[in-house]
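Below is a filled-in request sheet from our internal design queue. Each sheet records the structural input a requester submitted and the sequence that came back. We keep these sheets so that new team members can see what a complete request looks like end to end.

REQUESTER: design group, bay 2
PRIORITY: normal
MODE: inverse folding
CHAIN LENGTH: 106
BACKBONE (tokenized):
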């Protein structure tokens, strides 16, 4: 795993300005722009929160990044420790999922 990419904090990794925002592909992998004519024939819907360009200097991207910094995540999410087996099971039965801190290191 020494060749694995690791990211900590801000990065430009993964940004490609040539990729269309909301890119949707047809069955052959060709880009498709959703339209009324294609409605019902393809599974595609434009994300109304998506910026118009995939560029870090785009004002829409900057606004979205600031919004996500302030509002991302599940507010009040309970996070268990690896040793909390009973609590973990109870939360899983209640919510259908559970988050366990440092579970891969336990």
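RETURNED SEQUENCE:
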């Amino acid at each position: 795993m020494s060749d694995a990419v690791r990211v900590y904090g801000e990065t430009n990794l993964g940004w490609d300005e040539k990729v269309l925002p909301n890119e949707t592909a047809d069955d052959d992998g060709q880009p498709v722009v959703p339209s009324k004519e294609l409605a019902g024939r393809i599974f595609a819907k434009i994300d109304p929160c998506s910026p118009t360009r995939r560029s870090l200097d785009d004002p829409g991207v900057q606004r979205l990044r600031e919004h996500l910094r302030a509002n991302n995540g599940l507010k009040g999410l309970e996070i268990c420790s690896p040793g909390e087996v009973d609590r973990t099971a109870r939360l899983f039965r209640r919510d259908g999922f559970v988050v366990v801190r440092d579970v891969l290191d336990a």
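SHEET NOTES:
- Strands lie at 24-25, 31-32, 79-80, 99-100.
- The longest helix spans residues 59-71.
FILED BY: M.R.
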